[in-house]
TrEMBL record:
GO MF annotation: an example: alanine-glyoxylate transaminase activity
Region (Disordered) residue spans: 1-26
Family to which this protein belongs: Belongs to the class-V pyridoxal-phosphate-dependent aminotransferase family.
PANTHER family associated with the record: ALANINE--GLYOXYLATE AMINOTRANSFERASE (PTHR21152:SF40), AMINOTRANSFERASE CLASS V (PTHR21152)
Protein name per the record: Alanine-glyoxylate transaminase / serine-glyoxylate transaminase / serine-pyruvate transaminase
One family name in Pfam for this protein: Aminotran_5
Compositional bias ranges of the Acidic residues kind: 1-11
Length: 395
């Protein structure tokens, strides 16, 4: 028999989280997670479920009845969206302009879909003309796009143009809003998005474990009218309907503590006001961007496509991204991240999301980053960056 493990008390370091997620968690959310458990079919928890759904509708800007937290991380809500909507033989159009378009492709293929692409370079959004051309060529049944591409720092503009193109071809639209929900303008109903999924650990500043998903009636009709069963039992929305619909029948044991946390995080969104929250992210991230550029660094995305919640900035000449990231973690307990895929080694990814999107955090980050880059031999001017940031914050 193995010996009894000798494990110390849990004492993780206190980090300032300014990477691509998770973000810093609000103290009220942490407190909510320490409240007593009830059963997942307890009448009091059913009331909490109702409240979470209503708060999610507010945050997504939708009246969709089918708006739920999926039990799992953001990748679970992503897979729930794609695995339920895509049937074997469906043609699925996905983007090539970032890492998470590739993940869409993988999930769609596993669901039995035939994947085709609309192409754009990493660091650029999809062009509506290219999307229209791809529809004319391939006649896809489902179109997926990433609203806020975490790997490149690009925000997709002109979403209604894309959804109009798709619906003119009678296709369904799936939007990845993992890095936009609660931090960047997103209007599911006004923009005519059929399905949107997200994660709680980014702009909602909530620990991962219960992930937002919304589907309109048109999309749910497709899901409930499938000719073949969804290949995932756990994420099958036709089964989950019994738990999150009117019946509240047993399907699985929901992550009760994570639902508590999401409820409190969404309460904070509602108290602040969703449009005011969008404005706060824009203001604080704008100050961070001004400071980075004032220091002599270059953003990966042009201004018109800049994503406030995830700032992708080019690694300056003379610096090694891994050494800078390690310097910040070891000396300042400060987390940022490097690039993924085509941009590995070329960019830093700096989050400005939810509770982390505060003047205190961006001031701390810019000061520490300037020191780390200077120590790493980069040609930057940290003082100029701090001045530019302060000017922007004072506006």
């Amino acid at each position: 028999m193995p010996p009894t493990p000798d494990v110390d008390e849990l004492t993780p370091p206190e980090r300032t989280l300014m990477g691509p997620g998770p973000s810093d968690v609000h103290p009220r959310v942490l407190k909510a997670m320490s409240t007593p458990l009830v059963g997942h079919l307890d009448p009091s928890f059913i009331e909490i479920m109702n409240e979470v759904q209503e708060l999610l509708r507010y945050t997504f800007r939708t009246d969709n009845q089918w708006t739920i937290p999926v039990s799992g991380t953001g990748s679970a809500s992503m897979e729930a969206a794609i695995a339920n909507l895509v049937e074997p033989g469906d043609t699925v159009l996905v983007p090539t302009n970032g890492y998470f378009g590739g993940r869409m492709q993988s999930m769609a293929e596993r669901a039995g879909g035939d994947v085709v692409h609309v192409d754009a370079p990493w660091g650029e959004p999809l062009d509506s003309t290219d999307v229209a051309d791809a529809f004319d060529e391939h006649q896809p049944d489902i179109f997926g796009f990433v609203h806020a591409e975490t790997s490149t720092g690009v925000k997709q503009p002109d979403v209604p143009e894309l959804t109009d193109i798709a619906h003119d071809h009678d296709a369904y639209v799936v939007a990845d809003s993992v890095t936009s929900l609660g931090g960047v303008e997103l209007r599911v109903d006004d923009w005519d998005i059929d399905v949107a999924y997200s994660g709680p650990q980014k702009c909602l500043s909530c620990p991962p474990g219960a992930s937002p998903l919304t589907l309109n009636d048109r999309a749910m009709d497709k899901v409930l009218g499938r000719e073949t069963e969804c290949r995932s039992w756990y994420l099958d929305l036709s089964l989950l309907e019994g738990y999150w619909g009117e019946e509240r029948a047993y399907h699985h044991t929901a992550p009760i503590t994570n639902v508590y946390a999401l409820r409190e995080a969404l309460r904070l969104v509602a108290e602040e006001g969703i449009e005011e929250r969008w404005d706060r992210h824009l203001h604080v991230a704008g100050a961070l961007k001004a400071g980075l550029e004032g220091m002599g660094m270059e953003m990966n995305a042009p201004d018109e496509y800049w994503l406030p919640s995830l700032n992708a900035v080019r690694v300056p000449d003379g610096a090694d991204d891994g050494e800078v990231i390690s310097y910040l973690l070891e000396n300042y307990d400060l987390e940022i991240a490097g690039g993924l895929g085509d941009l590995a080694g070329d960019i830093f990814r700096i989050g400005c999301m939810g509770y982390s999107a505060r003047p205190k955090n961006v001031t701390y980050l810019l000061s520490a980053l300037g020191e780390a880059l200077d120590a790493n031999g980069a040609d930057v001017t940290p003082d100029a960056g701090m001045d530019a940031m302060a000017d922007q914050l004072s506006d």
